[in-house]
Structure prediction request, 1256 residues.
Amino acid sequence: MTSDTAVRVGWVGCGRMGTAMASRLVLAGHDVSVTNRTRAKAEVLGALGATVVDTPRDLASCDVVFVMVSGNADLVEVVSGTEGLLSDPATAPGIIVDCSTVSSDTSASVRAACTSRGAAFLAAPVSGNPKVVAAGQLTLAVSGTRDAFDTVRPFLEQLGQGVTYVGDDEVARLVKICHNMMLGIVTQAMAEITVLAERGGIKRSAFLEFLNHSVMGSTFTRYKTPAFVNLDFTPTFTPTLLRKDFDLGMAAAYELDVPMPVSALCTEIVKATIGAGYVDQDFAVLLLEAARGAGLTMEPENVAVDDGLSGETR
Amino acid sequence: MTSDTAVRVGWVGCGRMGTAMASRLVLAGHDVSVTNRTRAKAEVLGALGATVVDTPRDLASCDVVFVMVSGNADLVEVVSGTEGLLSDPATAPGIIVDCSTVSSDTSASVRAACTSRGAAFLAAPVSGNPKVVAAGQLTLAVSGTRDAFDTVRPFLEQLGQGVTYVGDDEVARLVKICHNMMLGIVTQAMAEITVLAERGGIKRSAFLEFLNHSVMGSTFTRYKTPAFVNLDFTPTFTPTLLRKDFDLGMAAAYELDVPMPVSALCTEIVKATIGAGYVDQDFAVLLLEAARGAGLTMEPENVAVDDGLSGETR
Amino acid sequence: MTSDTAVRVGWVGCGRMGTAMASRLVLAGHDVSVTNRTRAKAEVLGALGATVVDTPRDLASCDVVFVMVSGNADLVEVVSGTEGLLSDPATAPGIIVDCSTVSSDTSASVRAACTSRGAAFLAAPVSGNPKVVAAGQLTLAVSGTRDAFDTVRPFLEQLGQGVTYVGDDEVARLVKICHNMMLGIVTQAMAEITVLAERGGIKRSAFLEFLNHSVMGSTFTRYKTPAFVNLDFTPTFTPTLLRKDFDLGMAAAYELDVPMPVSALCTEIVKATIGAGYVDQDFAVLLLEAARGAGLTMEPENVAVDDGLSGETR
Amino acid sequence: MTSDTAVRVGWVGCGRMGTAMASRLVLAGHDVSVTNRTRAKAEVLGALGATVVDTPRDLASCDVVFVMVSGNADLVEVVSGTEGLLSDPATAPGIIVDCSTVSSDTSASVRAACTSRGAAFLAAPVSGNPKVVAAGQLTLAVSGTRDAFDTVRPFLEQLGQGVTYVGDDEVARLVKICHNMMLGIVTQAMAEITVLAERGGIKRSAFLEFLNHSVMGSTFTRYKTPAFVNLDFTPTFTPTLLRKDFDLGMAAAYELDVPMPVSALCTEIVKATIGAGYVDQDFAVLLLEAARGAGLTMEPENVAVDDGLSGETR
Prediction:
């Protein structure tokens, strides 16, 4: 791949995240072929300049193929299925990069299938939402062989920032889970201290403005701020999805014999939040549960708040 | 104060933090007079261009006086003592801005003393260390009257970034405590997930590089990274000091009837860390306690790690 | 006090607990004089054979006086007030035994007042309710001088079972707080596992019957069982009172530098239960909060359940 | 089974617990045949009057067979193996009662195997140690058909006290796990409050004497008291075994969507205790970890303490 422009790139999966990510490669001028189970969704990228093909098998001759599908079964299907990336006995992609959220076990078995066909496999799970992608702030933890990583790195760096090679095999899966546990813990911490501050007479908007400017401020604390201030819980990530990551994390903590008291407690708090009925809203509803325990009925402050995602730079 | 250059600024307290902060005002060209119990420490600022005076009383005619001392008793002394800022019956400073860490009760009584002499009082506690100050990343939460805040705002913005007016009276004290509780929780979260990642075969340097680039990354996570990677626990903030903030926070949670399960658990973890003998080291030793529970003996990775404080921009 | 029958016993405080306790001494044939702020309440004991007097001062010549009042201020009043036990300059009781729930500080100051008048003072806080008293199952932790304890021991053993001398000064106060923290933790544990069992298809009555028969069964688990099975939350002890004990316990843990993670977490859970509106019911409502988090709407099983308090023997 | 004496009883598994339990049936005069993989261990019961046979197959014609083996694989082997209870095509036991600790899945598959041969299967897991058995205080939770339970009840009541029918199928497995989680939580609670009391100047022996006499006292708190007072951690149940039960419990909590914050925290504390090196000692070492966090070096009090197991009555 001496010249990026000569590289043929494939993309499997044109859901909201997949489309947001793939469009960055298309708009950067790469030669991208895309496919999706429901072809209509792929046409959005076609309109931007991508070539739309029927099935993953049509991408078998690509140099690198990215996969962004919804889970274990779909990954197996698009790689090893009858119309999958490896279904053409004559050829297989050079490198397959999976950005989906799948289990380490599934990842390992798909890797083995790829390896047996001479295709390198990289695990590159992402965390975030389309708005974060659009702001250029998606981060990628990648595991597999170092060589394959070095080859696709230029493309990964166009998908987002902070592309990090974290080791062999499936370890990137664990990195993502760790990251998402921190995301849950930080949200619970924000909920607790925001309620304390409000009970102490401080507006949420003022408190979080301070926090966001302080050394504790992060892209994440900034983009959760509008929900905390104005109580708009349109979901970016639901308690149910967060619980799934905590469950995976606690399962890893069990297998690796790592005590994680705060993570365990947050797992139970998230479970209780779901049990209390918060299923379809954004997981920022942890704030409402914290307020309930304080006997506090929160009202929206109706203040314009910057979510920190307006530009590509912080 | 129509022209900043005409404003006479006083500064009380030339410890490590006070000197780092005051030097920013001096170097910005303001007319600053400084005083410190041990006069020699004040001479450092004198060498930079400040006027060194004997006692706080000598600053009574200043337009604005900043105070950065070590606690309740010292604040009372430098304001209301026999040589204090209010000890000259003929005159008193226009605005006194206290950046020290003191209790809300002490803050309120000093405020009352100031008000009775016609001096406005602003609570502006800071959190951070001299290196953060030097990097221009100190943040300030300020409470008191809005008028006084608007007047001194230009000076505050030279002390650091993210100057936020959070409300009346002493509420900035609570904001700082909330901030520091989050700092402790985030560190414990980092400790738990870093140990999990390491047990899963991921180098701490790789894991934290990813985390710092991700949406969870903050100035704080970046400047704690060298300690986590190379196990250098030279203190910036000790477990004992962190515990003090957690204790204050839990006391506020008690008075305001706010349940804070994760904060409470972290309070106990910090207590246990101290009980186990970690008194003089940086509170990043929470990592070692987390590793102990996982039966893991950590070794320094001896990798050069950016602490994110090298420049004034992130 | 060579012969018990010759001993003149005083009793101050004829609320529900005081009356239940004092009646045991009266019915045992002792010479008991009683007093209460509202004299009518004392008459109940008068009907049983006690002598009703007007004020604590009238008990100054008793050999031993028990006090069972509602808190710090009342204890100070009945001992050191103008009509108090020590208000007669000519004489003072030999031993004063305080069974109330007061702070260690108040206890120490009342002890000093007694000592200065030659009266021994024993701290003998009790935990329980009138039904427990009637079942002969009240337990007493006692602190003060060993001599005084040995003298009054026969009377204490008529008040309940399990009279234990725990040390000097006010330590019995701490013992009671520790006891009550355990009571809260055990209730939360019962709530969690009962909900788990119910979600697993096991009737609460069957599960708790097993638990009560097992090595984990206690007088306490037995007398909480009816509330858990039939959801009758008529209060014996409210979440608010339980929180008070947890708060005192966590304050002691703070002062004595003892990490108590599970106690701290239960403190927050109790706070949240109160914040959610459970103020006037029995603290067994912890079960309902646990059920809420599991998305479980509990129904009374309407099963007759033995509370274990029907006889004086277990 | 109109007359107990006519019933032919089989027993599989003569480890420490099995022998302690079976000996109660033998000594009660029943006609008991026993078998064990290592025949020598079965001879102990032979000496008491039992008939020793070679394999479980030799018990196929018994009316009721008890099984007490060490785990999933052993249960499958002794029931469905080539020399198992069901290996004789001509006959099978009437009722098989399994007292082992096995998973619900294994229990269900063994039940199916029994049912297909016309043998009733009861899950009757026990918790405790041989000393508890000898004191007649073993408790049994039993699940399966009510008929089978009623039939074997007289025998179960000779094995211990508090025999409780808890429902169909495998639910007794969950009951046992719940019970053991409570056992762990109560021990952690005892550890926390005992350390607090000791830091407050109260001897552990005095504190626990009070607790044991109080409404919180249980057979369990009494038999853990010698370890707490004299720091003799000869194992009855190790942290590793306790962790196994907590892990099973948290797995059930995950599947049944039940938040269990205190149980989850205790799970992590037990994991950390193991990680710190406490593997082979009694799980009462939770006390030592609690003391470590308080900076307290505990010394044995060397006081004779009643463990409450000296007689068959409480």
About this structure: Residues 171-199 of chain D form the longest helix (29 residues). The CA atoms of residues 184 and 242 of chain D lie 7 Å apart.
